[in-house]
Specification:
Bound molecules: zinc ion
Radius of gyration: 24 Å
CATH class of the largest domain: Alpha Beta
CATH superfamily of the largest domain: Zn-dependent exopeptidases
Number of helices: 10
Distance between the termini: 37 Å
Number of strands: 16
Order of helices and strands: HHEEEEEEEEEHEHEHEHEEHHEEHH
CATH topology of the largest domain: Aminopeptidase
Strand content: 25-35%
């Protein structure tokens, strides 16, 4: 109801002016009529705007010269977060509004009636984990601090359905609710697997002795695995890519969260400089690598993001939130348990390397709430492994073993949920 009103209102204003143009207009207005503003109805000045994070998690901070009164709400199609403020002069550089990570676009505008508006458009559905107005410790005014993270369309719709226009100071309570509406407490949810064919597009991945390109092997295998899993009929199955396209690692994680995945399986086939090493390996994420080879592999796989031409900054400070921490630990246990089951199943059908269950800091495995493993099917640097990866019989056997492992894991998860 309130939503429709705002939509109409936005419609009447005649669309949104891009940030840069808007800043110019605002600057012109404030230069042209300085005497209009008296102390009581002076423009709020937004002094700086910063966004940090990636496609799974973002923090946005806007500094204001005094305490802003805000109202915020969500809009769908596309997924947007709208923040209304008192008449505001946005006194920062338009380039600070450049899209990044989970935020596909930022727009500013005047709504009339003394209201200014900030609109953040998500790359996909998202959750607002926190939206606070905080006093700067150095006495230089206030800041609006927003934490948002990738979520599913269902979670976004649920937040939309719940929303009453909210002021910044009363919002933090939303967080527990959001976590509570996650996949585990969703009774109609079918066990969901997201298969991630490694690399793609400009990022070819490793290259085999006989010219096999990793990105093609991973896509062919993932497609076969998807078809096998879909044929079982018990699961929702998605792929992060089903064409030869480049995807950042955090986008792969975002897609898994968007589908409320119960399992993410990232498929790879790397090379290794140590001669004679061959066979499959199953990796989970860990802060400390299980061995130097695992560390080297994670470093190489994480380089995939360099193809995006973006700097990789680790500005995701460790989340201290205890609830998130508990979820992460639980997720990690499930990842370990699935990796163990998977190694058991693969060992009956395909060759494994020594110590086939390993761990390292793979970025693609870092969803806090999606159990995730990375499977190295074999080494393209080994001629026998390379031949196997191109062999339909071998691929069929390996895909069947993974399907069996998923069946075991899914039934254990479903029982746990029914019991809990
Ligand atoms: Zn790879």
């Amino acid at each position: 109801m309130g939503l429709a009103d705002f939509t109409n209102k936005a419609g009447r204003v005649g669309g949104w002016i891009p940030g840069a143009l808007c800043l110019l207009l605002l600057a012109a207005i404030s230069f042209g009529f300085p005497s209009i503003a008296n102390a009581a109805d002076a423009l709020l000045v937004a002094k700086s705007y910063k966004m940090a994070g990636d496609a799974t998690k973002m923090r946005i901070v806007m500094d204001c010269d005094r305490e802003p009164e805000i109202k915020w709400f969500l809009l769908r199609a596309p997924n947007r977060l709208v923040i209304d403020l008192a008449n505001t002069r946005f006194a920062f550089d338009a380039k600070d509004l450049k899209a990044r990570g989970l935020v596909k676009g930022v727009r500013l505008g005047q709504l009339g009636d003394g209201v200014s508006r900030l609109i953040l458009t998500g790359k996909g559905p998202f959750a607002v984990d926190k939206l606070d107005v905080l006093k700067n410790e150095d006495g230089s005014g206030y800041r609006i601090a927003i934490d948002m993270s990738a979520a599913s369309e269902r979670e976004f719709e649920a937040a939309l359905a719940n929303q009453a226009l909210t002021t910044g100071s009363t919002v933090s309570a939303d967080k527990g609710g959001r976590v509570g509406t996650g996949p585990v407490s969703n009774p109609g949810h079918r066990f969901t697997v997201v298969i991630d064919p490694g690399h793609g597009g400009v990022d070819g991945g490793a290259e085999g002795l006989n010219g096999t390109i990793e990105k093609n092997v991973t896509l062919a295998f993932a497609t076969e695995l998807r078809d096998k899993l879909s044929a079982v009929g018990n699961y929702e199955v998605f792929m992060t890519r089903d064409t030869d396209e480049y995807l950042r690692l955090d986008d792969r994680v975002r897609i898994a969260r968007q589908h409320e995945a119960d399992l993410l399986i990232s498929i790879h086939a790397d090379t290794i400089s140590v001669k004679g090493i061959r066979g499959a390996t199953v990796y989970t994420v860990s802060d400390k690598a299980s061995d130097p080879q695992a560390q080297a592999l994670a470093d190489r796989e994480n380089l995939s993001d360099q193809f995006a031409g973006l700097e990789i900054k680790n500005d995701n400070k460790e989340v201290t939130d205890i609830l998130i921490d508990l979820i992460r630990r639980e997720t990690h246990n499930f990842s370990m348990s699935f990796a163990h089951t998977l190694v058991g199943q693969l060992s009956t059908s395909v060759g494994l390397i020594n110590n086939p269950q390993r761990s390292a800091g793979f970025r693609v495995l870092k969803a806090p709430d999606v159990p995730s493993v990375l499977v190295e099917l074999g080494y393209l640097s080994n001629a026998k492994d390379e031949a196997q990866l191109l062999d339909a019989d071998w691929r069929g056997k390996a895909a069947q073993s993974i399907t069996n492992a998923i069946a075991l894991f899914a039934s254990a998860r479903t029982e746990t949920r029914a019991g809990g």
